[in-house]
Write a structure and sequence with these properties.
By secondary structure, the protein is α/β, with parallel strands linked by helices. It has helices spanning about 15-20, 25, 40-50, 70-75, 90-95, 95-105, 110-140, 155-170; strands spanning about 5-10, 30-35, 55-60, 80-85. Helix 6 (about 95-105) packs across helix 7 (about 110-140).
């Protein structure tokens, strides 16, 4: 990393791959560090912020379900943190003006309205599955349980059902 011009901290492998593809030249002399998830991006950024800055860095995380206020608090406490304006990097890449311009450069002019209509149709077919995943992720965040740490099968079941009970009570 010290041989690089900068350090870019991202959540996962896909973020690293996509950013490197989009920003090949600007990132060519940067080290991209995959933190694993949003919490680890924040933790890494706090660590980088607290130490002596050996090289410039930026930490990038998805917005996920954060409110504007939560983002403002987060970026105020970690100045080197960047949070995508949309829920994920993929949402940024599917921004209708960007997709429309890309189609135009590829020789297939498409209006922003056409892009938006097509993206909406695709999203609508996946809506219920995405909502279910988001609800599950939020319930896990609110009611974590340590099944992975348990070695006893009965203890794993107990932890799982306790988390289930807490989730149902919360609903």
């Amino acid at each position: 990393a010290l041989q690089s011009d900068s350090l870019v901290v991202v959540e996962g492998e896909q973020d690293s791959t996509r950013l490197s593809a989009i920003l090949a030249l600007p990132l060519s002399r940067s080290t991209v560090y995959i933190a694993g998830n949003a919490a680890n991006v924040e933790s890494t950024a706090r660590t980088l912020q607290s130490g002596q800055e050996l090289l410039p860095w930026i930490a990038v995380r998805d917005r996920d379900l954060l409110s504007d206020g939560e983002i403002a608090d987060l970026t105020a406490s970690i100045p080197g943190l960047f949070v995508w304006p949309s829920r994920t990097l993929e949402n940024e890449l599917l921004h209708p003006p960007l997709v429309s311009a890309t189609f135009g450069r590829a020789g297939r002019p498409t209006t922003e309205n056409e892009v938006q209509t097509r993206l909406r149709a695709i999203a609508d077919t996946q809506r219920s599955g995405i909502v279910a995943e988001l609800v599950e992720a939020e319930l896990k965040r609110r009611h974590p349980y340590a099944v992975e740490r348990e070695t006893n099968v009965l203890a794993k079941k107990r932890a799982f059902f306790e988390a289930q009970r807490a989730s149902i009570e919360a609903k």
